[in-house]
Write a structure and sequence with these properties.
With 236 residues, the protein is of the alpha/beta class. The protein is built from 8 helices and 7 strands; from the N terminus they run αααβαβαββαβααββ. It has one domain (3-235): Rossmann fold (3-Layer(aba) Sandwich). It has helices at 3-14, 22-34, 37-43, 62-75, 99-109, 142-155, 173-188, 201-210, and strands at residues 50-56, 89-96, 114-117, 130-134, 161-166, 213-219, 229-235. Bound molecules: S-adenosylmethionine (SAM).
Length: 236
């Protein structure tokens, strides 16, 4: 991937947030530049082509913007030669607890994606081909995490994809640093209190298995001081 391609994709995916205000735009720029997960999802071809993708705890909808622009670049022939095709997602549906984030997502992306205010612990997830939950599950209680995974499994067909990113509580200092930054960002986004329910990587793999998924870990913190692991899971 060239520096030019990297800049182009970041510029295109963040441009829509100019209309959603200073915070939204700067937050989008910082996140897409600093978090390797966004390029990682594309480089590793983790998201399949799908009719429906649900993003639980979608924040201001950055992933939708990212995937839409990635696909547009891919279709225009501006794409790294050794990367898999950018996924074609027909319907992107994001669910988010914070109304400010939902407003920002809707302002930025209009009808290019659907965003709904709701709680992943109670919302009806309907049916989907793929689901993604990035850095969200640790905010909900241990039993609630399992319940969400059970309901995501019920929403997916056998073979459907769930991608989630978690922190590994056995990760030592980088884990504590990740939590410290997470806490600061969480409060900055307007949440009133910060309580988290963390697990070790092995525990995450176990609860995924218990709730109908076969998952493989893919570390995704290269070049950062954080410890975060993508879990790429298939519904079995
Ligand atoms: C660390 S942010 C990650 C946002 C987005 N997934 C990303 O990677 O850019 C976590 C998000 O999960 C949301 N969230 C936390 N608990 C939630 C819940 N119970 N239901 C829906 N969203 C929730 C937060 O409001 C926040 O926007």
């Amino acid at each position: 991937m060239t520096a030019h391609f990297r800049r182009t994709l970041i510029d295109r995916a963040t441009q829509p947030y100019r209309s959603a205000g200073h915070f939204a735009w700067h937050f989008a720029r910082g996140k897409l530049r600093g978090d390797p997960v966004f390029f990682g999802l594309l480089e590793h071809g983790l998201i399949p082509d799908c009719a429906r993708l649900i993003d639980l705890g979608c924040g201001q909808g950055l992933l939708a913007s990212w995937l839409l622009e990635a696909r547009a670049l891919y279709e225009s022939g501006n794409w790294p030669a050794h990367w898999p095709a950018a996924p074609k997602v027909e319907n992107f549906w994001g669910l988010e607890l914070m109304s400010k984030d939902v407003d920002r997502a809707r302002t930025a992306l209009g009808d290019r994606a659907q965003f709904e205010l709701g709680d992943i612990r109670t919302a009806d997830l309907g049916h989907t081909d793929a689901a993604i939950i990035l850095d969200v599950l640790h905010y909900i209680g241990y039993d609630e995490q399992e319940d969400v995974l059970r309901r995501v499994r019920a929403a997916l067909p056998t073979g459907g994809t769930l991608i989630t990113r978690i922190g590994d509580a056995a990760g030592g200092l980088p884990f504590y640093f990740s939590n410290w930054v997470d806490r600061a960002t969480f409060l900055l986004r307007g949440h009133r209190s910060y309580k988290v329910y963390c697990r070790t990587l092995n525990e995450w793999l176990e609860i995924l298995k218990r709730n109908g998924f076969e998952a493989a870990p893919l570390p995704m913190h290269k070049g950062t001081p954080f410890i975060s692991v993508m879990l790429v899971a298939k519904a079995i």
